[in-house]
Amino acid sequence: MQWYTYIIYSHSADRYYAGHTQNLSLRLERHNSGNSRSTKHGIPWEIVYFEVYPTKSEAMKRRYGV
């Protein structure tokens, strides 16, 4: 299964957040649900960029390089 490294943006907080996941649409829903501590302030979030990787370790390396 593929992995994603993504960047989301909040206009209300004027802030970016980078993460990695296997399910991009579900992860965005969770960010916008208010249950994610790191992104509960700034709702709504929108995906502004993503890349696809074959393994979790590659996605994580890219995330921490952003």
UniProtKB/TrEMBL annotation:
Domain GIY-YIG: from-to ranges: 1-66
InterPro entries found in the cross-reference section: GIY-YIG_endonuc, GIY-YIG_endonuc_sf
Name of one Pfam family that matches: GIY-YIG
PROSITE patterns the UniProt entry points to: GIY_YIG
CDD domains, A to Z: GIY-YIG_SLX1_like (cd10449)
Name of the protein in question: GIY-YIG domain-containing protein
Organism ancestry: Bacteria, Pseudomonadati, Ignavibacteriota, Ignavibacteria, Ignavibacteriales
